[in-house]
Amino acid sequence: MTSGWLAFAGTVALVVGAFNFIDGLVALFNRSYYLVGDDKIMVFNYTAWGWIWLVVGIIQIAVGGGIMAGQMWARVAGVVLAALSAIGHLAFLQAFPWWSVLTIALCVLLIYALTAPPAGARGA
């Protein structure tokens, strides 16, 4: 059985993964881009956040492909990573509010899209 929600979820997972990957690259290579005057966001500096977002983004892109292929492990991993990404972007709100709000909204939408279809459904 195919599900439009899973095709949508796979696409959103790829987009959120790309957003997080870009966040990581920006934090690593252009530290003055973000709006925060202090070098710390919560407990990490920009370099640590850069590596965190880079790794999370790469994993989310891989999970997006798994979601499109209809893998149940990818749906579970997608929900977990979307929740962690939303929480991480709450901490990142001070540095870049509009980007973080957009990413949090996409993560919430992704969680819904991954949990709404029945088990065994595949992306279109």
UniProtKB/TrEMBL annotation:
Asked if the Swiss-Prot or TrEMBL record annotates the protein with the keyword Transmembrane helix, the reply is yes
Record keywords, A-Z: Membrane, Transmembrane, Transmembrane helix
Q: Show the Pfam families listed in the entry.
A: DUF7144
The DUF7144 domain extends over: 5-117
Residue stretches spanning the membrane: 7-29, 49-69, 76-92, 98-115
Q: Is the keyword Transmembrane in the record? A: yes
Task: Write down what this protein is called.
Answer: DUF7144 domain-containing protein
